Amino acid sequence: MHSGNHFQFSQNQALPGVRVLEASMADFSYDKHAHEEFGLGLTLAGEQHFASQGTFFRSRPGHIIQFNPDQDHDGHAGTQAPLYYHMLYINEDYLQSLAQALGAPSGQSVYARQTLIQHSQMHRNLRQLCQMLQQGIGSGMALEQKLIEVASLFIRLNTDQAPIQSGISQTSRHDAMIERAREFIRDNLRQNLTLEEISDQVHLSKFHFLRLFKQHTGMTPHQYLFSCRLGAARHAVEHGEGLTAIAHSFGFADLSHFNRRFKKVYGMTPAQYQKHLYLNTG
After folding, report:
1. For residue 85, which of 56, 50, 121, 33 has the smallest C-alpha distance?
2. Could you confirm whether the keyword Nucleus appears in this record (predicted)?
3. pLDDT score, position 278
4. Mind listing the pLDDT tens digit for each residue in 187-240?
5. Which of 101, 89, 27 minimizes the C-alpha distance to 267?
């Protein structure tokens, strides 16, 4: 792998459920995956190419990437120039509680309507928050204030009309069925699930279910299962659990298999992630 690939995660105890990734990429490519959190990204140099929900995107400096929880995507540098970007991850429950406190319509969850946008004020505030987390600067109060500014703009940009992102609405029968299947997968990450077991939860043949699940999520059930397992394994890594035990617990063949799959999503091995992730105490 090219030496121009660098990934650093940072977080601060003042903002539970929030972490930031600072990444430089030359020849690294992410596998298709999804995160349990919201992701708000800034392309700062180069060009980021990625596919999400069946659409191809080019993110250039000045663009903001908005990923909803469970939104499939991959990614790589789109030109010969190195790619440099920040990605802020925010726990879904945490952001939704902020949204309600900041005046979002009562009982209405807020989700991104568009995957790629431009908004100078949002870009400025998001970059400032990322830098504060990365550099460990600012008091807890200052960090909270900056997050509130980012969340307020996110709400304003995404509540002036009905959400249009697929895979989020639960109003239709199919949406509800897919969400039920995803909940079953998330509740059984440590089990050796079969396609038939999952499809039985929504009373569909496994062939019909496979087609419907991919149509709604952009991922196969197997891809979604591994994405969720990696997310849960990441939490275990952050809490200092043994890597071999984590690999075994979440269905990876061995530590080598866990290393390979983890690196294709987070840009580093679990051991490197455990070493580089640090807690600022500002």
Report:
1. 50
2. no
3. 54
4. 999 988 888 899 899 998 877 888 889 888 988 888 899 899 999 999 999 888
5. 27
pLDDT beyond 90 at 131: yes
pLDDT tens by residue, 132-151: 999 988 888 888 889 988 99
Q: Which sign, positive or negative, has the C-alpha torsion 68, 73, 79, 80?
A: positive
Helix, strand or coil for residue 44? strand
Contact at 8 Å (CB) between 185 and 228?
yes
Q: From CA 126, how far away is CA 101, in angstroms rounded?
A: 20
Integer angstrom CA distances of residue 204 from 186, 193, 216, 218: 19, 16, 15, 19
188 SS3 class? coil
pLDDT at 104: 78
Both structure tokens of 260 = 């390979």
* Model confidence at 2: pLDDT above 90: no
Domains of the chain: 6-158 (2.60.120.280), 173-279 (1.10.10.60)
What is the Cα–Cα distance from 237 to 169, expressed in whole angstroms? 32
Measured distance CA(196)–CA(137) in Å, rounded = 50
